[in-house]
Structures are given as C-alpha cells and as structure tokens.
Amino acid sequence: GCGGSLINNRYVITAAHCCFKDKDVTLAFVRLGEYDIHHTKDCFRGNCAPQPLDVEVEHIQRHPFYQNKNTFDQDICLIRLFEDVEFTDYIQPICLPSAIETDEKHLYNMTMTVAGWGSIENNPKKKIPHVLQEVDVVGRPTDVCSSILDLEMDWENQICAAGKEPAQSPCPGDSGGPLMYYNTTGDSRRYMLMGVVSAGISCSNRDPDTNPVIFTRVANAMPWILSTIHNID
After folding, report:
1. Catalytic residue among 75, 119, 174, 198
2. Rounded to two decimals, what is the model's pTM?
3. Which CATH class is domain 5-93+222-232?
4. Average pLDDT, the chain
5. Is 175 known to be catalytic?
6. Could you tell me where the beta strands, DSSP code E, fall in 100-189?
7. Closest CA to 7 of 160, 226, 223
8. Separation of alpha carbons 194 and 146, rounded Å
9. How many helices (H) and strands (E) are present in the chain, helices listed first?
10. Can you give the residue ranges of the Peptidase S1 domain (predicted)?
C-alpha cells in the first residue's frame, strides 16, 4: 500500500509509482481519517473519532515527466476523488509550500516529519504496524544523497533527508506519504507538505549517515499541480 496527503476537498497527492495502471490491480478508493487499521473506530479514553471515510477514485494523473521507478524523477501523482470531501476535526487538507520554503539551504539540517503505515522492518510482510507511525528526518545536502545512492538525478525536483535517530527511517509501505514541516512563523501554526516519499536504499540499513531517503519536492511541482487541478475541474 501507499500513503498520500489531502490537499483540498477533491484531491490527494501521492507518489507516481503508487498510481499504477495494471490490468489486474486498480486503485479503487482512498481512505481518509484513518489511524488504527485494526479497529472500525479509533478511541482514546472513551472519546471516539468517526469511522474512516472511503472515497472512490475518479481520475489518476501522474506527472507527465515521470518515467519509471528506477529514476525517481517527478515521482508525484494527483488523485481526483469521485466526490467532494467534507472537512472535519479528523480530516483536513495540508498546506502547500512555496519554492523559497523548500530550497536546499532552507531545508539543510531542518527537522521534518514523515508519517505512514509502512513496515517497521525491511521485509514488508513482517511487522506492519496497525496504527499510524511517524518519524523525524533531517534535511541533508543533495550531493551526499547523490554519492550514497549512486544515481544521476535532478535534485531541483527532489529533497534528500535521513532519519534523525539511528534505526528510524521510512520503510516499504510509506511511499507516497508526506514529508511535513511544522511552520511556527507568523500568526498561524500549520503543517506544510514539503515532499512526497519516493525512494531509499533499504530500511534494514538504519544508519542515517548511509541510508538517506529521496522525497519528491512539492514546491517545484506546484505549477503542474495547480494547472492539473484547474484543467480537470
């Protein structure tokens, strides 16, 4: 499975390699407002959230420059939902960033958060958590990622980050999920969607110095995101 982020009342953003088109497998719906996949309702000390909302998928649009999951470039996709989503205390859109907020100097050593239900071991069939997990990662120089991953990539469209602590990093199943920064400047405190989980080496290697993770940079895809939403609507 893959994660994603609600960006308005009709669209979810995820990784392009999650938006597969296969004769045997089709992305049928998106689940919103989920936390514990083992329970119909999520409750804490007697207080329960409404049941998660499953919304049918109307249209899938990968970035036109995405080629395949071996290059990771422009690994981003928009999912248009079949109907408008009503926002609640448990279902809210995440804010989108500007280019200035996600330039490399701004992100270097910045602590950000990744969330998902990805495996907590490298084998995706083992230890899949039933509750939403989160992990802090730190922005790294792109030349470090390029050297470690040994891949020629367009770093203007990507973010490099690594686990803040040993044994903590995104794993299989976290693809498409959000790389978030909690912005405390100004009057409003809000999470911003800086990137989308794209690829890494192996989550069995939990050394943050040798196992960075690649994220698709959302800010550089904003012209495509806005034009796609406008043109389809």
Report:
1. 75
2. 0.88
3. mainly beta
4. 83
5. yes
6. 111-116, 133-139, 158-163, 178-183
7. 226
8. 19
9. 3, 13
10. 1-230
